[in-house]
Amino acid sequence: MSDARVRWSPAARLNLGAADLPETRTVTRLAPGVTRTSITRGGADSSLFWTAEVAIPSTSPDPDAPASALSDEAQAHAVADRLAAAGVNARVERVVSPQLADAGGDLGFRVRAGQFGAKADGTATVATIRTAGYASSVIYTGWDGDVGSTDRSRGPWTLEVITIDPKAFRGELTSSFGPDFEAREATSRLAQASGALAAANGGFFVLDLSAGAPGDPAGTAVFGGKVLSEAVGDRPSLVIDAATNRSTVQRLTWRGRIAVDRHSSPLALSGIDRVPGLIRNCGNAASQTPSALPLQDVTCTAPHEIVAFTPEFGAQTPAGPGLEVVLDARNVVTAVHEVRGTTVPRAGRTLQAIGSDVEALRAAAPVGKRVTLTTDLVNPRGGVLTTTPSTNVVNGGPLLLTGGKQTITAGRDGMVRPADGNNFYYGWVHKRNPRTIAGVDAAGRTLLVTADGRQTTALGLSVKEAADVAQSLGMVDALNLDGGGSTTMTINGQVVNAPSDATGERPVGDAVLVLPAG
Description:
Layout: E1 3-7, E2 23-31, E3 34-41, E4 50-54, H1 73-85, E5 90-97, E6 105-116, H2 123-131, E7 136-140, E8 157-164, E9 172-176, E10 185-186, H3 187-194, E11 198-201, E12 221-223, E13 226-229, E14 236-241, E15 246-251, E16 253-259, E17 267-268, E18 271-272, E19 278-282, E20 294-301, E21 305-309, E22 320-327, E23 333-340, E24 349-354, H4 357-364, E25 372-378, E26 391-395, E27 399-402, E28 405-406, H5 423-430, E29 435-441, E30 446-451, H6 463-472, E31 475-480, E32 489-491, E33 494-495, E34 507-508, E35 511-515
Parallel strand pairs: 18-21
Antiparallel strand pairs: 1-2, 2-3, 3-8, 4-6, 4-7, 5-6, 8-30, 9-35, 10-34, 11-32, 11-35, 12-13, 12-26, 14-15, 14-26, 16-17, 16-25, 19-20, 21-24, 22-23, 22-24, 27-28, 27-31, 29-30, 29-31, 32-33
């Protein structure tokens, strides 16, 4: 390995914050064709401070509607006036977000109070606000993504970049979910288990039992050429060919069917390796509540569906009412169970049905019947993604770049929730957070990027800034991967960034791995 500490020319600097910021890059060669670039940009900014942000009660007629950070101007001023009467000097701020391809602009108004040098200094103000009848939390203004302030920001930012050149790299670019889908693994553990030179966290996944099986990808997943999770709408994914060490960013949709014979209509196969009835991030034709369109961090429900399970899922399929059909390696039905929850044959699969699909599957797949399963991922032109044992796919979103141009589709990819008054968008897209980015440059190199955030020493990126960074690094096609507390980069199995969860590195669903030649 060799290190070279360099002060890059203005043309090579990131388009991030004020144009005159100092930027340092440390480049390390990990293997022929693989480099790590550590980037620090900007420094301490005395104009930033901690402040109390007020949760504004909803004006919805729904008594269960939650309070939120944003409201219309009249409601925001009414809250500020009530706080002033309680002795709190509150201010109303208009929030304008960068315009993206299908979202952004004027988000609404927020109410804030106080300027504190440390987070703990805001405790008394939060208590006074609570006494006045409002919830609030102390946040750092450096995490704002407001138009008019981001281009003047002084930082600081900390990023890690792994670049894989397929022309020179003789190892393997791949991905892994660990021993099984049903359990989450830390990125460092996945890296250590495979002996990876470098690794970054991968796609979105289920976090808790209320949303399905923890660790299950919440979107497209292919490992070793085997489709193991269906798409969320037509969200973008990183498609990796481990045989050539090349990757592409593609929009993929799901097409699943169960065919019995020529005389019967096929049954719809809703998904793979997830709890029937629970669809994390929605975007599935079977999902009915609240939407069939993608909705980030929402668990949609479906009362009637059939889901396939592979041996990769885990030791036992999800238990519960319904029906489960066991298939051998030739897709011949070997058993029919009147409740769900069994072991998947090593070379076979099972099919679980709930709701009205129980009777449909029972009638179509008795013991001894051979079925044909279709588990296709389809591109926008209608072509089926061809998979080989070297194919791996990691889900993501929103799309950031296409053909070198910014095409940030936060609305299409489910980061806009029309029913919540821009509040999810405000926290997830507009504000700065830790981010993980993947993409490809004009030379065909794959880049994996992490940006630390939720810290005063590392501000993170808004989604717009993530696209700016990807573009600055020379990517032509890029997408956002899972971020926040999931954002992790490892080198030789050791974490080299600063994950933001208070408990340390977060176990995730999968990771992108750079394996050494061997």
